[in-house]
Amino acid sequence: MNSAKTPLAGHFSGFDHQQAGTLIAETIAAAYQRVNVKPLTQIEIAPLPQQGNGFDGFRKLLADYSAASCALASPAMIGHMDTAPHPLAAYADAVVSALNNNLLFRELSPAASRVEEHMLSELANRMQLRSDWHGTFTSGGSLANLSALFAATGGFGGVAERGRVSFFVPECTHTSVLKSAAVLGVPPGRIHVSEGDDQGRADPVALADRLRQFRQQKPDGIAIVVAVLGSTIHGAIEPIDQLADVCEEYGAWLHVDAIYGAALAFSSNHCHCLEHLDRANSVVAAPQKWMFVPRVSAMLWVKGKATFDESLAFSNNYSTNKQTHRGTWGLQGSRRADAVTLWAVLNYTGTDALGEEVDVAIARTGLFHNLLQDHRSLQPTHSPDLNLQCFNYREAGRQADVDSATYRKLGRDEYPWVSISRWRDTDMFRAVLLSPAIGESEAGGVPAVLERLLAELS
């Protein structure tokens, strides 16, 4: 056999890490300097080359891709529950990718497995999950919801019982919950939307009525109630304690979607919103949102070791070395070490900094709400629980319009950018005051970017 190195082996052994590191550092630094949210150019993608383009091609590729991408780090980015991760997360994530340890087996991730277990325990404690909770990371919030609801239906051992399952969801539930129902074979006729308030929070009395009727009609039915702690459109927080009372009375599984609101665990002023989470049966969170790490990073917990194992554990014969593999649980096999990035960021910043950022964002949203109340042509459509504020025009019949000339220029030439969401057949502006880059005014009032936004939309 020819012992000469293959071309790809030469790329590994002769790779210029110093040059690559410098180029990546420059590209990442530039990403945090962008002002325009929307790109001013579109990328042109050529056919893949037979012969590599080397570092010159890589440099151009990164420059073109960066210029044509949405700039989430811009202070003008206030349109979605998305922001740039902490800069350290980008570098930590690069190391996670380089080591490429696989959470499927402990032998392939000896350190990452321990970090994941530590972070699951740390976050569960901060979220006031005091009972016997066990969890795992997943690749994103949608998969976290699917995995938790899979456990609620009986998991791997409950496939034969799936026909007895019905979901009870609030109007403000995330689309991933409805997708999960479809994946789990729960038809639309067994998905009951609870009556609620103007933000879609379920009314506990109305939920109790629905569950009472369900139990009368299907005494052996499996009822799964979904509650939301930080809804996607309004950032609404549901009354977890009252919903838990109803679930206990009618023998329903309570799943709490805290994908967004879990960050309140670090807050000094708002951590009380999590006081009753321990009464749930499953909980999900997503550090990729308000904990400033890259997507797709999410976590789920199930109450009770026996329930966690019975519903989410699956034997894997690839490795029988008697170690406790993290890949034993959940719907995924191979997983990257997302917990390590979160661990690195929180070690770098400290937990107090994250908690203060959460508190500042909520306070800032309250100031924005007050500004809207006094505005001559715009008004808030709700009172915010978190850092999301929807608003619209005061003029009857006029609403947010994605095709308007004013809206089309937002996000460019240093104009702030908000999204447009549809709620109960009405389009409205939605601002998510998430990014730390938004800043404060010198007097501690409403940031200039928000004042400019309202001036442009007037």
CATH level 1 class label of the largest domain: Alpha Beta
Q: CATH topology of the largest domain, which one?
A: Aspartate Aminotransferase, domain 2
Strand order, main sheet: write it out: 1-7-6-5-4-2-3
Strand content: 5-15%
The helix count comes to 15
Low-confidence stretches: none
- From the N-terminal CA to the C-terminal CA, the straight-line distance is 75 Å
Helix/strand-derived category reads alpha/beta
Main sheet? Answer: 7 strands, mixed
Helical content, roughly?
25-40%
What is the domain tally? 3
Overall outline:
globular
**Secondary structure: number of strands:** 11
Fourth CATH level, the homologous superfamily of the largest domain: Type I PLP-dependent aspartate aminotransferase-like (Major domain)
CATH architecture of the largest domain: 3-Layer(aba) Sandwich
Radius of gyration: 24 Å
Short description:
With 458 residues, the protein is of the alpha/beta class.
Features:
15 helices; Aspartate Aminotransferase, domain 2; alpha/beta; 7-stranded mixed sheet; 458 residues; 4-stranded antiparallel sheet; Aspartate Aminotransferase, domain 1; 3 domains
Task: Tell me about this structure.
The protein is an alpha/beta fold. It folds into three domains: 12-69, no CATH class; 101-349, Aspartate Aminotransferase, domain 2 (3-Layer(aba) Sandwich), CATH 3.40.640.10; 351-457, Aspartate Aminotransferase, domain 1 (Alpha-Beta Complex). It is 38% helix and 13% strand. It has helices at residues 7-13, 17-31, 54-67, 87-99, 110-126, 141-152, 175-183, 204-217, 240-250, 287-290, 305-312, 338-349, 351-373, 405-409, 448-457, and strands at residues 133-138, 165-170, 191-194, 222-228, 253-257, 282-285, 298-303, 378-380, 388-393, 419-423, 426-432. Strands 1-7-6-5-4-2-3 form a seven-stranded mixed beta sheet, sandwiched between helices. Strands 8-9-11-10 form a four-stranded antiparallel beta sheet. Helix 5 (110-126) crosses helix 12. The model has no long low-confidence stretch (mean pLDDT 94).
